[in-house]
Amino acid sequence: MTQTAFLNPSDAVVSTHAGTIAGDRFQVLDSWRGICALLVALFHFPTASVISQSSFIGSSYLFVDFFFVLSGFVIASSYANRLGRPE
To answer: Which residues contact residue 42 at a Cβ distance below 8 angstroms, ignoring those fewer than 6 apart?
Structure first.
């Protein structure tokens, strides 16, 4: 939102779609970031169950890197227009 939208909320434009324009949310990437966080949590959760003993969960520490790559993309996308303008 711009500063004028904060001062006069009736002028604010609300986007209801999940877009790829800077400033919009990437809902699919948010979902993947959540899945990565859950898999890493499962990796660190100590149990003797079949799930925690599986090789997929045993290798899910790799999702930390994927989480940070996705987060970096989301942050870079949100700052893309701001970096090109002096303010």
So the answer is: 51, 52, 57, 60
- Dihedral of the alpha carbons of 80, 26, 66, 50, in degrees to the nearest 10: 170
Buried/exposed code over 35-59 (b: 16+ C-beta within 10 A; e: otherwise): ebeebbebbeeeeeeeeeeeeebee
Q: Read off the pLDDT of residues 51-73 as tens digits, 9 standing for 90 and up.
A: 777 888 888 888 999 989 998 98
Q: Give residue limits of the domains in the chain.
A: 23-83
Q: How buried is 74 (Cβ within 10 angstroms: 0-12 exposed, 13-18 middle, 19+ buried)?
A: middle
Residue 52 near residue 46, CB atoms below 8 Å = yes
Residues in CB range of 33: below 8 A, 6 or more apart: 67, 70, 71, 74
pTM of the model: 0.57
